[in-house]
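Quick entry, no commentary yet.
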Amino acid sequence: MVRGTKRKKKDGVWEVRVYLGRDPVTGNPRQLSKTVRGSARDADDVLRDLIAKHGGASSDGVGATFGQLLDLWLEECERLDRSPTTIRNYKSQIEKGIRPALGKVKLSRLSAKNLDELYGAMKEDGRSAKTIRNNHAIISSALHQAVRWGWVRDSVADRARPPQVSQRRIKAPSVESVRAVVAAAEDRDPRLAPLLMLAALTGMRRGELCALRWSDADLETGELDVSRSVVVAVGGLTEKATKTDRFRRVALDEVGVLLLRQHLANVEKWAAEAEATVAPDAFVFSPYLDGSKPFRPDNVTSFFIRVRDGLGLKEVRLHDLRHFTATQLIGAGVDVRTVAGRLGHSDPSLTLRVYSHLIEERDRAAASIMGKVLSVPSASTAETGTTA
């Protein structure tokens, strides 16, 4: 039986807490707490709901429902410092499709047939194959967590059959489109136009660009240190490691160096006019004159959308600037490992999968080269002793 407590923190503010048994791995007690604003009765109602929601699970998983497993899995994601954005996406997908269908099913009775029926219902509702696969990934991860905890012997997700997702052919924006977007951005907001240009030059992610500080930029050697990303969390912005938790160094050519030198001169001029000071570790792209706080990633996206819509380029996304970098580099013959490192991909095989059609085009060009090298001499050239 799950136990619960209620504690008054101050007038109109209560803390309710439920005891969930002991962690099967560490043996430490597990508790779930929530702050409630309102009357004592409001706090009692919330506590009652929490007890009802978590009442069936014991520390060894006996009697647990799949919904209770999902709640504990989400807690593990937070403990492992998954991105707040990622966790929000997980919660959204769980509440929209997974919990209504499977939340009350006992883990001991959950079957591959349950999952296949869910995926079939999602398809009938018009969900894309990619969306269904994303839901399957959440279900699979939660069930493998249950296996690690010893709650179930194996994962029924391994026997389920989610739909296959065909690899979408990447269509990057043209050079002309990127130039037009950057020029239009300069007219709208000179603080953000350099960010878009740097995105196209380096292939950096949106959050990585927002997290960039002047102390990360060596304009003498033409290098950027990329080790953090800005994400939107509960209560505001926070910095975390990059998507792959890896540090990387991105080289800049003279265009990139000049871009940042001009931007720094503008930043220092704007700060001086307001009698502010730009610290050495200030954010490169900031809505504040002293660079004390970064731009919100979602505000950067909103700005990009306004710019591209004004140009009639509604099919172009901010993330497509990253694809632009990759396609230009691969098309120019840069090896995939170098491209993967520049983009911050954890494995070059990911780069190969995403941009496979470009590799195929280069392969056809390679075939043409080898054909010319090994072509059989024609009769006329054979008579004169020359080769084709």
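second:
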Amino acid sequence: MKAFKSTILDVDGVLFDSNTLKHDNMRKAASEFAEGERLEEFLSYFILHNGLPREIKIEKYFGKDTMISQALLNRYNQLNQQTLMAAEMTQGSKDFLRKASSQMPVWALSGGAEREVKALFEKNNITSFFEGIYGGPVSKKEHIKKLPVVHPCLYVGDSKIDYETALLVDAGFAFMTRYTQFDGWAVFFEDKPEVTIIPDLTYFFQDINS
């Protein structure tokens, strides 16, 4: 870690084991508005584009500013409000935050709703570790352009969107596998040797402690 001077972290699948929970919530919500092949197509798109704000993904399939899009968004938000606070932190993540934040600025970037992310961080007593916590409906790509990133910067994510976002600020990218829903990650990163593949945040412990 001492090789880096700032860190950016994704939330779902990096700090919290919440990808499956959110997918289940979206399946429940979307089942009220779609069925069969259309439902499965939407859910596949939803997972494939983890890291994008939910508003963008819903509007892709159900239209911008339509009654169905708004109703689906409201239902999904309601289900998250009921269940998200039960999400557990990923292996080693709290120790990583404690140690990394003592050495450098740390930011959180999420495709999830910013209000949900902040509430989840407060519940788990980790808000103080961050210089800033950012989420939807603004995209990660928009947020990262405004961060006062200090190079060399480490970005840890678990989606294609995270990788693309890291490229915008020339951050060193680490892809975290243990909780990801990106089934094609091995093939996608096969020709990208600059990307570090890690199981979870305990990968960095040796460097942090050195």
